[in-house]
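[SOLVED] Predicted holo structure with 2-acetamido-2-deoxy-beta-D-glucopyranose

Edit: marking solved, answer below. Original request kept for reference. I posted the sequence and ligand SMILES and asked for the 3D complex as structure tokens.
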Amino acid sequence: MASRVRVSICFSLLVSLLFVSSISATEEESKKEFVLTLDHSNFSETVDKHPFIVVEFYAPWCGHCKSLAPEYEKAASVLSSHDPPIVLAKVDANEEANKELASQFEIRGFPTLKILRNGGKDAQEYKGPREADGIVTYLKKQVGPASAEISSAEEASSRITGENVFVVGLFPKFSGEEYLNFTILAEKLRSDYDFGHTTDAKLLPRGDAVTGPVVRLFKPFDELVVDFQDFHVEALEKFVEVASIPKVTIFNKDPNNHPYVVKFFNSPNAKAMLFLNFSSQLFDAFKSKFDDAAEHYKGKGVSFLMGDLEASQGAFQYFGLKEDQVPLIIIQTDDSQKYLKPNLEPDHIATWLKEYMDGNVKPYKKSEPIPEVNNEPVKVVVADSLQEIVFNSGKNVLLEFYAPWCGHCQKLAPILEEVAVSFQSDEDVVIAKIDATANDIPQDAFEVKGYPTMYFKPASGDVVQYDGGRTKEDIIEFIQKSRGNTVKEDTVKDEL
Ligand SMILES: *[C@@H]1O[C@H](CO)[C@@H](O)[C@H](O)[C@H]1NC(C)=O
Ligand SMILES: *[C@@H]1O[C@H](CO)[C@@H](O)[C@H](O)[C@H]1NC(C)=O
Ligand SMILES: *[C@@H]1O[C@H](CO)[C@@H](O)[C@H](O)[C@H]1NC(C)=O
């Protein structure tokens, strides 16, 4: 369970990295705060008072929360005069006393925004944009009826633009169990899709003369229009979810594609991602072979995405990929294993995917190169040398997981160096560091949720997390207390 949560946090991190360029922070600050600050003491009372309220769960250290803050405040100020009122609030979910609230709403990453109706009894995830204008437009739509009637062709063409998924219920009359089930569906999925209903199919784009009841889904990809006639609520819901996932998700700078990219990364499927330069002459050849593969493996637990090199810096950083490896396919499974095929040609796609499906591809590990000289007091560990230095050396190893941009890590660096110097004549103790942003960390051994994180591997025995003070004296004392009898490397080998 814990590892599941970790994986999805990683994915939300990835998703936010992917869109990092689309979040624009502005410096504007106004005196009056329109966003309400809530905590455990006044949350229910406030939510009860407002039939429609949006709550942001944030953490003070979260960068994306900081970029959202001015946009959220600006949106709150615009929406404060909306009729009916739309209230925006925030909760510091990192605060110990508010953690129960956060877990009640299943908050798994920051920021998470929830739309609460009926005193919080109906909670929906906010899935709209993160800049002020976008927030305003999205929330105005959320506060109205979940599905509004379409009564003219003009209205139909202005609402059903062909740029996103739009679900229309076609009914002979707006009553009866089918209609009721459609409204339940619209209410349930309103934060993800646009809904409308009509009695006249001829008003719709590409309309033909059906009278219904039928649900007609318009989408900007694959077959463009799909009809469905099973009005069980669960069946309708499944239909909309499945029909609105493209066979191959396209990831480029076009913001219209972003909701599908988010869905792609939220899916529990294994994710097969083909990255290339979309301007390449071979684009069509790749697209056609990849489409074939997606069709071939439909329903087999793999989702497919094609990403344009130009939009993918975030993903490349996250997976540790390099531009000279494109075109490439990388597959990431739900348990965070990765499989890589660099320098791909269109004809490789089918054969390589078959090898992967047959279990014949070895996982790929992100690692910096093993340093040729490693003679500073604090040793450098990379993913490819972690086993050897930390687990197989038979020594007492203190390992720091750091990020190059992390201020607390920079503060710790000279202290760690002093610790290392003080153990320099002691062969059985190693002080080491690993750049956790450039190397894959084995998740079964270490849990790294923030930087710096330190673990200690005694000469014999399991790793333990170091959560003591960050002074030279504290660390040295801990190592002296926790070090085991050193097992020499040759003895280890003898035992094997
Ligand atoms: C809720 O309580 C906190 C802490 O006492 C306070 O800062 C905040 O303004 C209150 N919010 C509302 C809407 O009353
Ligand atoms: C409406 O949905 C409910 C719940 O799924 C189902 O029991 C009922 O049969 C549905 N009605 C129709 C006409 O399909
Ligand atoms: C993609 O290819 C085009 C045309 O060959 C080139 O101009 C562009 O710089 C390439 N983009 C990247 C990100 O390499």
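OP edit: Residues 248-357 form a domain with the Glutaredoxin fold (CATH 3.40.30.10). Thanks to everyone who chimed in.
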